[in-house]
Specification:
Elements (H helix, E strand, L loop, with lengths): L5 E7 L6 H4 L2 H8 L3 E7 L12 E2 L9 E2 L1 H11 L4 E12 L2 H7 L4 E6 L4 E2 L1 H6 L3 E4 L8 H13 L47 H19 L12
Parallel strand pairs: 1-2, 1-6, 4-7, 5-6, 5-8
Antiparallel strand pairs: 3-4
Helix pairs in contact: 4-6
The chain binds adenine.
The site of adenine has 12 residues, from strand 5 and helix 6.
């Protein structure tokens, strides 16, 4: 039996920013195949007042504007189901990792709240969000690009999303190692050749070479990653 489709809601004041990302490539195909439904929810639809404002000046003064609680609470109230996981995108959140993507790919319903401007009212953080995610130690103009990154990493893990099943098992961060060097034709390009072992036809030796390369590359580039276990692929 096929797994129930994942449902994703992305709450943002810039829903059109997602059109291109969601309408291309694997994200597009996964939606067409019924593996996931993704809806962009315009926060302004839940705003009130003549100007439908979604932000306001901070109590206590200071620069910038703060995302108001009412439209966000109303949007989440409208969308939330018992199985929903509400995620606030913020540079203060837990660093996004492949393991987080794998956990979120098991969920039934994800609601992303994309923060804007200089911050969000703290009550959104404390009373609404089940988790807070940061995609890195830098500040984006708004959380919608960050949400798109998380959605992309999650959707490609859904069974059937990538052409060949298992393609996502053999890659960087799933194995705990960065990927080994890959080559394709031609065998010599601008005087640059390829490692002879790859055309030897000896699959055991190729697998051994790839693992050695992956280990060396991970040590050199990402000494912060934990060393792989001996039985890892
Ligand atoms: N919003 C702004 N910057 C962000 C980041 N680095 N991660 C998640 N959400 C954000």
């Amino acid at each position: 039996m096929a797994a129930a489709p994942l449902h994703i809601d992305i709450i943002t004041i810039f829903p059109r920013m997602l059109d291109g990302i969601l309408g291309e490539s694997i994200l597009k195909r996964a939606q067409e195949a019924g593996l996931v439904t993704i809806r962009c929810v315009n926060l302004r639809d839940f705003a009130t007042g003549a100007h439908l404002t979604t932000d306001d000046r901070p109590y206590g003064g200071g620069p910038g504007m703060v995302m108001k609680p009412e439209p966000v609470f109303k949007a989440v109230d409208h969308l939330r189901r018992p199985e929903s996981k509400v995620i606030l995108m913020t540079p203060q959140g837990e660093p996004f990792k492949q393991a987080t993507a794998q956990a979120l790919a098991q969920a039934a319903h994800l609601i992303f709240i994309c923060g804007h401007y200089e911050g969000v009212d703290e009550r959104i953080r404390t009373a609404l969000a089940d988790m807070e995610i940061s995609i890195g130690d830098y500040v984006l103009t708004n959380g919608v690009l960050a949400a798109a990154v998380v959605v992309d990493a999650v959707v490609r893990l859904l069974p059937g999303a990538l052409g060949g099943e298992g393609a996502a098992d053999d890659e960087s961060f799933t194995t705990g190692l960065l990927e080994y060097p890959q080559y394709t034709r031609p065998p010599v390009y601008r005087g640059l050749g390829i490692p002879e072992i790859l055309t030897s036809g000896n699959h055991a030796e190729i697998a051994k070479w790839r693992r050695e390369q992956a280990i060396a590359r991970t040590r050199a580039r990402r000494p912060d990653l934990p060393p792989p276990s001996a039985d890892a692929p």
